[in-house]
Design goal:
The chain is α/β, with parallel strands linked by helices. The protein has helices at residues 53-57, 61-64, 70-81, 91-105, 121-128, 136-143, 155-169, 209-226, 236-241; strands at residues 3-10, 21-30, 33-42, 85-88, 117-120. The longest helix has 18 residues, at 209-226.
């Protein structure tokens, strides 16, 4: 199953109040590593930003004025995520906005959960770190993920950071190591074939005469104690019954 780290930026905190999506960022993972196949789109919201929202994202209506609206990018976005496992921090927030955008286009688009499964990293973090702050910044600090380049919230940047957080949160292991890397450093090469010629010869250990005598004496003591040893084969009476 494809895994896609997804994040959105919006004009405010609640879609029910008419707020809209202004940016979508998606990072595809292949064997728990970024594949390089990303999706990023700015979107014209056709509504005002709530107070404080612009300061968080650094986006403005002037910048977004010539960007496509959600209806224009819906097919490409849905095609990118279709059938994937989405990894989202505080998934209810992003899914609420995405489902609202789809509903504005008509019932034929359904909901995101009709197309994808979802892993909520906030729920994972709360399970692992109960009672602690589990914002993306807090998790970066706790898990040793570098987010020093995150001056503003940006969907693609936050998705990239969340990818590192997700790997650390779900064991800290980015891959087992069986796959080879291609020249671009991506883990999308085929598995290396097993070459037995590269194995060293196995050492051969032989028992000395005295060790063989001691072993035979040990077996004889076991025969006398048990009356029979399985490694000597079936007893004569057992053979007769068979």
């Amino acid at each position: 199953m494809r895994q896609i780290i997804l994040d959105t930026e919006t004009t405010g905190l609640e879609w029910k109040k008419g707020n809209r999506i202004v940016e979508i960022g998606c990072v595809e993972l292949f064997k728990r590593r970024p594949s390089g196949n990303n999706y990023h789109q700015y979107i014209k919201p056709d509504c005002e930003f709530e107070a404080g929202a612009q300061e968080v994202t650094g986006l403005t209506l002037d910048f977004l004025a010539d960007k496509p609206d959600f209806a224009q990018i819906a097919e490409a976005f849905l095609s990118f995520i279709d059938g994937a496992e989405l990894i989202i921090h505080n998934a209810a927030f992003d899914l609420g906005f995405l489902d609202n955008e789809l509903s504005l286009l008509g019932p034929q688009y359904g909901r995101i959960l009709d197309r994808c499964t979802v892993v909520d990293t906030l729920a994972l973090a709360r399970e692992r770190f109960p009672g602690q702050r589990n914002s993306l910044d807090a998790l970066c600090k706790r898990l040793g993920v570098d987010n020093s380049h995150r001056q503003l919230h940006g969907a693609l940047l936050d998705a990239q950071i969340l990818g590192d957080v997700y790997i650390a949160l779900t064991s800290g292991q980015d891959e087992i190591g069986f796959a080879s890397m291609d020249e671009a450093g991506n883990a999308n090469a085929l598995l290396q074939g097993f070459d037995p010629s590269k194995l060293l010869p196995r050492p051969r250990v032989q028992a000395t005469p005295s060790e063989q005598q001691a072993h035979a004496a040990r077996l004889e003591r076991l025969r006398k104690k048990a009356g029979h040893a399985l490694w000597d084969g079936p007893k004569a009476e057992e053979t007769a019954v068979a």
